[in-house]
Amino acid sequence: MILPITQYGNPVLRVKCAPVEQVDDTLKELAANMLETMYEANGIGLAAPQIGQNIQLVVIDIPKDEEEEDAEPETATVNGVVKPIQDLMPLVFINPTLEPYGKQYLFTEGCLSVHNIRANVARPEFVKATLPQLDGSVLEIDCGGLLARCLQHECDHLNGFLFVDRVSSAAKLTLSKKLKRLAQGY
Ligand code: NI
Q: Considering the entire predicted model, what is its pTM?
């Protein structure tokens, strides 16, 4: 089922999300619906507040064609084993713990909840993440690249942050009119 995606200005995007206490059929169905909603919107990640639920649930699917053609396939260390990130997709997790590290770099981000705005955001290059799965297993991931970027963006959502909060103050000035308009029309 395709769910409506909450838009900038909606207070549900600004709440710190509660941990998921119990994985039941309702939660599994919600995760499946979030994936469907994300694919339909051509997104690569979606966090529960974006469909109006303030719980720590995230779905990510980084498609192969997002990678640069001549580049090596992106890899991550997953529970001690190096593998292509494609093997992880779609990635669904609850109650994540993230430890970003490394040098900050700028990368252009967008968000399904912030229409028609893309902006450069500085974030650390790498992430160590503990990602509990719906089946009770836990993925320990160490990664860089688009997956590290995406994990930081999505986990920000769980704390009520949006990428536009993290742009430079000059960029904030440039964006402020557009954001005001979005907030009025949500
Ligand atoms: Ni987003």
A: 0.95
